[in-house]
Design brief:
It is built from eleven helices and five strands; from the N terminus they run αββαβααααααββααα. It is α+β, with helices and mostly antiparallel strands. α4 packs across α8 (about 220-235). The termini are far apart.
Length: about 350
């Protein structure tokens, strides 16, 4: 049998070709895997970036809402400036209590959401009412919205509007006291609910009438309240309450603030012409005070605080009253004067 011809190394060539094909397939698979990893990485990066952008966008929206709310709900304050009945002072921005002929004037800038304002009212109210009843003192109340700006909400604005509506009804002093006596926690915007304000108005005999209810619900005096707050800011007061007797800050001297007893003595002395200064219905801002700006809780309108300057809230006595002021001022976000001033019976909010 003749020998069969066989191509040399055919099997080796086939094996080599198979190996090359397999290696090429593995390499292609590896390259594809690398590409997939890169695509997945890019995808995760895009997702994360989108999430970050979303968070930042949400923060911007929240910040915008807070900023708008912090301006004292100016959308609610839009409209004509309608002063309450009998409003007095520059631009008719003060609600006066007491007899107009009284020789001494107490000027008070207050916010119905301000804890230090409540403490001031609690400690000084009886003395103030006593002096008013005797015809020795008149009080010019200026209503502001500092806490709305610092904490958000609309309770300061709506509470002040309701108080102005009570002035229209001739019931301001009683309703003013009711609002402070029933003041919610500073962080609780309960006075932003008109129903709550109307409920409290029920504590004042004869106040809840269709006219009063409409005034409250319509926000009749919102723009007036807003204008009062602008005057507060322009006056560069350092916080609420700001209290001046005959144009002089009664808490300017933290070491010797005007207590209720001292207030009584000074007013009586003024009535006798033996001291106490001249009565003035125009508030006089502290010359050293200046407003400050802040971010959280929208504090752009909040006056700055200083431990060395005039204080704007006080206690009736160095013992019990000062502790009440310190307690009420400890949690707020308003203007502060420092713990030392609070401990001595003068605090700010």
């Amino acid at each position: 049998m003749p020998p069969r011809f066989v191509w040399p190394n055919v099997s080796e060539k086939n094996d080599g070709a198979n190996r090359d094909a397999k290696r090429s397939a593995r390499e292609r698979l590896q390259v594809e895997r690398e590409r997939e990893k890169k695509r997945e990485k890019r995808r995760r990066t895009i997702v994360v970036a989108s999430a970050v952008v979303g968070v930042l966008g949400l923060a911007a929206v929240v910040g915008l809402i807070a900023a708008n709310t912090g301006k004292g709900d100016k959308s609610a304050a839009a409209g004509p400036v309608t002063a309450p009945s009998g409003a007095t002072g520059k631009d008719a921005l003060a609600i006066q209590a007491g007899k107009p002929e009284a020789k001494s004037t107490l000027t008070v800038w207050e916010d119905f959401r301000c804890p230090a304002c409540k403490s001031f009212e609690t400690n000084y109210r009886d003395t103030i009412h006593e002096l008013e009843a005797k015809g020795l003192l008149k009080v010019d109340y200026h209503l502001v919205t500092l806490i709305d700006g610092n904490m958000g909400g609309s309770g300061s604005l709506k509470g002040a509007n309701a108080a102005a509506c009570a002035q229209d009804a001739g019931k301001f002093p009683a309703y003013h006291d009711v609002l402070f006596e029933n003041q919610p926690a500073e962080t609780d915007d309960a006075y932003g609910n008109n129903a709550k304000l109307l409920e409290l108005a029920g504590k004042v005999d004869g106040l809840v009438t269709p006219e009063f209810r409409k005034c409250v619900e319509d926000g009749t005096h919102n723009s007036w309240v807003n204008k009062s707050y602008e005057a507060f800011r322009a006056g560069k007061f350092r916080g609420t309450p700001s209290v001046l007797l005959n144009g002089k800050d009664i808490f300017a001297d933290q070491a010797n603030p005007v207590t209720p007893q001292k207030l009584k003595e000074q007013v009586e002395a003024a009535a006798k012409g033996t001291g106490g200064g001249n009565a003035s219905s125009s508030p006089s801002p502290s010359p050293s005070a200046s407003p400050s700006s802040s971010s959280s809780s929208s504090r752009s309108a909040s006056p700055g605080a200083s431990a060395k300057g005039a204080k704007t809230a006080g206690s009736g006595s160095p013992s019990a009253s000062s502790s009440a002021v310190a307690k009420s001022s400890s949690t707020g976000t308003g203007s502060r004067a420092g713990s030392a001033g609070v401990a001595k019976g003068a605090g700010e909010d």
